Amino acid sequence: MAQWGFSHDLAAAQSQVPQDSVPPGQPLYLWMTLDGAQTAIDRMQSSPLTIQVHWVRENPEATPGAPDLVTDLTIGRPDMAATLEGVVRRSGYFEWHSWARKDTLSPGTWTVSLTYPDGQPLLCGRDAEPCRFTINVG
Question: Tens digit of pLDDT for each residue in 40-72?
């Protein structure tokens, strides 16, 4: 992943510095730019490549509210694989812009992580660490 951010408005999320705190009770967008390589192309040759966004509230027993949520995002389809493979050959990677929305977040600290459907974490950054973000609501 190259970039990410949180905001109550998708357009604002795409143009601002990532926030670490937001007010409760409003929709929240996580936007992201994912970098894909040949491994992603290989996965999408036969079916859409899917990643999951996990929204998990830390310490939910302290403040009851919205449940945890898993959102599936499709990253490319078999009919796009050849085009994206050409991009990977030219530049070494392709960029995929996507977003996920949580309609209402209750107060507390939320952790957002990205995985493949089999539970394997998506890796982020130069250090190839699991994609995991924290946002404080309240």
Answer: 899 899 888 899 999 888 876 655 665 678 989
pTM: 0.79
Task: Give the position of tokens 């996920």.
Answer: 100
How confident is the model at residue 58, as a pLDDT? Answer: 80
> Cα(59)–Cα(72) distance, rounded to whole angstroms?
24
Classified as helix, coil or strand, 67 is coil
Number of H helices, E strands in the chain: 3, 10
What domains, with CATH codes, occur in the chain?
Answer: 3-137 (2.60.40)
DSSP-assigned beta bridge partners for residue 95? 35
